Amino acid sequence: MPTCVLRITAPDQPGLVAAVANFVADHGGNIIHADQHHDESTGRFFQRVQFDLDGFPLARHEIGPAFAPVADKFGMAVEVRFCDEVPRVAVLASKAPHCLAELLSDWRAGEVQADIRMIVSNVPDHADLAAFYGIPYHSLPVTPETKADQEAQLLALLEADHIELVVLARYMQILSPTIVDRFPNRIINIHHSFLPAFAGARPYFQAHERGVKLIGVTAHYVTAELDQGPIIEQDVARVSHRENVKELTRRGADLEKIVLARALRYHLEHRVVVSGNKTVVFA
Amino acid sequence: MPTCVLRITAPDQPGLVAAVANFVADHGGNIIHADQHHDESTGRFFQRVQFDLDGFPLARHEIGPAFAPVADKFGMAVEVRFCDEVPRVAVLASKAPHCLAELLSDWRAGEVQADIRMIVSNVPDHADLAAFYGIPYHSLPVTPETKADQEAQLLALLEADHIELVVLARYMQILSPTIVDRFPNRIINIHHSFLPAFAGARPYFQAHERGVKLIGVTAHYVTAELDQGPIIEQDVARVSHRENVKELTRRGADLEKIVLARALRYHLEHRVVVSGNKTVVFA
Amino acid sequence: MPTCVLRITAPDQPGLVAAVANFVADHGGNIIHADQHHDESTGRFFQRVQFDLDGFPLARHEIGPAFAPVADKFGMAVEVRFCDEVPRVAVLASKAPHCLAELLSDWRAGEVQADIRMIVSNVPDHADLAAFYGIPYHSLPVTPETKADQEAQLLALLEADHIELVVLARYMQILSPTIVDRFPNRIINIHHSFLPAFAGARPYFQAHERGVKLIGVTAHYVTAELDQGPIIEQDVARVSHRENVKELTRRGADLEKIVLARALRYHLEHRVVVSGNKTVVFA
Amino acid sequence: MPTCVLRITAPDQPGLVAAVANFVADHGGNIIHADQHHDESTGRFFQRVQFDLDGFPLARHEIGPAFAPVADKFGMAVEVRFCDEVPRVAVLASKAPHCLAELLSDWRAGEVQADIRMIVSNVPDHADLAAFYGIPYHSLPVTPETKADQEAQLLALLEADHIELVVLARYMQILSPTIVDRFPNRIINIHHSFLPAFAGARPYFQAHERGVKLIGVTAHYVTAELDQGPIIEQDVARVSHRENVKELTRRGADLEKIVLARALRYHLEHRVVVSGNKTVVFA
């Protein structure tokens, strides 16, 4: 069933919900999911409205223009999305295969609504996995000296194929602002700690040193500041003094796979709205 | 800030969301929380809309009648509630004090928006606790022979004081249909298992026998069938072979307190809609 | 580092712990992990002792006989295992690929210490996955009429290859006692409910009907009674009225993968002792 | 049933487990719980052995001296504790009553094996609660100017009554080194964040600002560095963009009560060993 999603941000004011609902109702549409949020601290209003396109009298490209008067009246920023849209995605990975393998396996099972165009890695290890799934694989080794070059190649690949979303499936290289700035809120990273605790390198080592009783992982959008971008999803698992760093790493791997998958699903279903450095997730 | 909550159930159809939103907007009201749910299996639509009463032009008693034409048009069942309403509550407990003590402590801290009118128990144990909180305490001992009499006394107490909500804070007597039928969806029980597993007597013993790796608790509305009513909230805790029945009981007590408190809060904030034998909780 | 695991069951009595520890110490061995459990209700004692083989003066095959006098004295049942043992495993799956794919991916990453000898399925779907991982694939379709034949073929495959452990990675056929009895406590199943709730068919449908607020999964050893075997591991995830059966199924799939992997790891590391219809898991 | 707990720390070496087990067995004692841990990074060995005193031939005061030769041989630091020991405890609280109320309610129900000698607060609010439970209440108001004086009064109270354990049940004053140094690993604090995230002031505000998807709490021993002491226990709860700071605070309160209770129980049952800035909790 094809559906349309309106994702709206506006200054809060009376009549917003009615105006959007009327737009759908006046065209005879049926809302199948609607959720909204009023952020007290900023006075901003966020809404996600999903309605059935079956029988809707407007063509897809007509919906935005038809909605424009409503948006103008209330000062809304609005995005018009369609649930059968399939964005062009690049997956980046380093040595650890678990997040990449999970994502590909889910994708093959039809659970990831994305057009995975390429896998890029700084190691050659995953070429056969990519081949099995029929996805082009680019191995771009990197050293401190070649980092600028490697990033230029990476950017060229992303742009040549009109990539819309980048998924860092345990890609252990820091992306430079050149790349980050091209994909605002369109690079999803999985960081293997419960941010803001243990940002930066070797989080499981840090967690072990501090003696925490739970380890966590965080999926977030990448911004210029390392591990500081808007958090999409987090989860934790219980550990004890028994787990050494290696075992924390293994325990964490299970979390990483699942939290990245969950965050990606939220993104692909147009459920995430970024507000400042935070997200509203209409789960 | 006083607010009004409309709790709506209707057959799903286009225009419902707009109609309710327009009702609020046409009176210049501001929606501060709205949530809805379309149940695919029954075709029913559920909505909770909360709006600011400050500056709203209708008096409280005028809102229902003013909304009636909308309700009629769409075949809505609607309840009009106010967030500063404080229902008259009776708390029933047996020997175990933890749920009762927690509820009273939270209530005193201003976190339970209820008018706790009485504590009733089949044991005299909690009289001093009740006295400390300034709440009348009724000790109604019960034996198989006196059960009918005891229930008649209990019902008389509830009715004399116009009780609107009954909270079973580990009250270990089965209420007869006479009482249950008087309070449809207005008796909340905390059952110490993850229902439907381990319904009936001695759930921690049953859980221990079966060797489960998690224990759970369930807050639900009481219906004529024991432990079969609509579930409001559940939670679990990890256990292992190490815990004997006594330790499971202690671990579970922490869960019981918190899950009962959470379910009660949902109920008091008019967040729960019963649909058949299930609940929609607009949390 | 090669290690030996002694897994001991005995009637509880003073001196047990000392006797086992002395056996290791008297040979100059170093205990690197020891855990024990005294079950009050049965008076049974369970112990898992893992010690370093590096420098241990006895050859592997000499350890059991050397320990026999200790075992005899205390009436111990003892199993002698080695951590680098790699049992011969068959994985059975039906249509849903997620548990199978996860298991193979983990196995390839070196995280499953098993010799996966074959994948058997009642559907042909996973042949290419098996080929990618270099594992023989047997497609054994089954109908009510051919069930006995199919099981005979299955059993022949298992026996011909000396399979020691069978993993049911969402294999949706009920194994007959003929097979179950050959592999006591050596068939691990993942059931997609929080047992004992929702045993039998279509557990997510049952969970949706009952309106539970958490869904769960259970890894257990298979016994003659369906879904009644000793529980190895369980976990749950929060759901709400929003999830329909399809979404519960998807949410549950993440749990199934991880709980099966965890149970399998416990088994392979010789951490599970079955006691009656329960397990002691020395995690 | 009276039991003795030996809590042992030693450099790891072969024979340790056997030596302790033999000590108990040679006196005809029966070990009812034993757990040990070898910390790879430090090479330290930790053990907790609990044995039945019923029929044990040594008097309580004789056990330590009798064990001394074993301790000497292996360089063990050993503590001899008894499970019916009831330490003298002071509970400190500020305005928020929930942790204090919970602790007292549990204590009255017989679930906290402590001799609660006094409640000290910088506000007078909890005097009637203390009176209800029959515990002396000391209201010691504090301002920046009077902090030194107030602490001197506090310390005098603690010392005059031979307090052995201090529980900070949401006591919002920073204790000076003078007090902290007197009670090494004997002051338990509940911090309302998932440390090391959000140390310091207003953690729920910080959590809200950062947009985390889980909030947490941490029970830890107090050391000279604020919120840096050894972590005993942690837990988390899921939140979303919907919760404002006030609601995070309320959600967190439930966690705080339970995590503090759990940490206190571990401490009172002699299950916690501090190792550097971490804990081994033999739960």
| Adjacency order of strands in the biggest sheet of chain A | 7-6-5-8-9-10-11
What is the highest CATH level, the class of the largest domain in chain A? Answer: Alpha Beta
In the CATH hierarchy, what is the superfamily of the largest domain in chain A? Answer: Formyl transferase, N-terminal domain
Low-confidence stretches of chain A: none
| Helix fraction of chain A by DSSP (H/I, runs of at least 4) | 25-40%
Per DSSP E runs of 2 or more residues, the count of β-strands of chain A stands at 13
Provide the residue-averaged pLDDT of chain A. Answer: 96
The sequence of SSEs of chain A as H and E is EHEEHEEHEHEHEHEHEEHEE
- Oligomeric category: homotetramer
CATH architecture of the largest domain in chain A: 3-Layer(aba) Sandwich
- Total helix count of chain A? 8
CATH topology of the largest domain in chain A: Rossmann fold
Major beta sheet of chain A, specifics?
A: 7 strands, mixed
Structural class of chain A: alpha/beta
Beta-strand share of residues of chain A: 25-35%
> What separation lies between the terminal Cα atoms of chain A?
19 Å
Overall 3D form of chain A = globular
What number of structural domains do the residues of chain A give? 2
Largest interface, chains and sizes: A-D, 33 and 33 residues
